[in-house]
Specification:
Number of helices: 10
Largest sheet: 7 strands, mixed
Helix content: 55-70%
Distance between the termini: 136 Å
Bound molecules: S-adenosylmethionine
Oligomer: single chain
Number of strands: 9
Order of helices and strands: HHHHEHEHEEEEHEHEEHH
Strand order of the largest sheet: 3-2-1-6-7-9-8
Structural class: alpha/beta
Amino acid sequence: MVLRKLAGRLRQLGPLTTGAVVATAVLVAGTVLAAALGSTRIAVCLLALLLALAVAGVLRVNLRLLGLRADRREIRDLRVVLDQTQRRVVAAVERQRLDTEDRHRELTDAVARVQRIADRGLRDLRFTVPREVEATVQLFQGLTPRAPMPSSGDYALNPTDLLELVFLVRTGKPRLVLELGSGTSTIWLAYVLEQHGGRLISLDHDPDYANRTRAALHAHGLTGVAEVRDAPLAPVDLDGRTYSWYDPAVLEDLDDIDFLLIDGPPAAVGPDSRYPALPVTGPRLADRATIVVDDAGRKDEQAALQRWLSDVDGLSRGDELLGRHAVLLLNRAAAGELASLSGETRG
Ligand SMILES: C[S@@+](CC[C@H](N)C(=O)[O-])C[C@H]1O[C@@H](n2cnc3c(N)ncnc32)[C@H](O)[C@@H]1O
């Protein structure tokens, strides 16, 4: 039974180990037999062979262990490489995810921008264009120009604003109108003033635009009614701040201005470019005057309106029917003298 178990175990071993076991058994048996028979030499020889077999066995086991250690090191190195590769793959996937998120955000923003533009375009088509067309029709119904009217481009007053401007001048019949910023509005104003005998002085800081407006006045036969003055921008000091505004020297011969249109200088010349209009022209305004401020919804113009309304006695807001301008009414008789906003610019 024991022998069968042993044989079964031996069968599980490899052929080399089985050979070694068998050789060991033979050598041990041989050694015992030789010793028993008194053959010492043979016994010693067999013992030496047994020893050699044992040393070979130990060597083999050592070699196996060395191989195992090398395998373990290799496995450890492989695991490090695997970890690094895994980390690199995760980082690449994360980068890709963030990139995709960025692209998605950019795309969503672009779509929203296009949507806003399309909405504005649609709104313009549905409301602004018909409104401006109606205003243009009304303008030309009230007045027949003697020459082609210059187009109201980006910089000019909109037809709706022009329509109310023409209405205010036609009904108010001012004697002297001062316009800050010349253009198409100069021609329209001049036509209306011609009807009741008023006069228009228009300032322009840009000699090219001043010349264009002069040429248009000439073509329409309005040079007797309106004059365009070159007014280069100059530093204007007010309340400790310097503004870039029309050189006040060009206003020296003007008094009792009863209508002021503020449509220049353009915002591009500097911040709060239109604020000096009232402080500088204030002393030259008539006791009763109407002031129209274009682009009244813009931040700088809003701030200027607030300051004027709180600083200038007798100044109040008038009614606005159409457009994006503001109307101010000056009534000095009711409120006393206009505060001496810019004594230095006059004196
Ligand atoms: C708002 S614009 C004045 C427009 C004028 N009141 C009108 O309604 O026709 C103010 C100034 O901008 C300048 N300007 C006018 N048209 C321009 C244009 N198309 N490009 C650049 N500047 C312009 C002129 O110097 C003008 O005095």
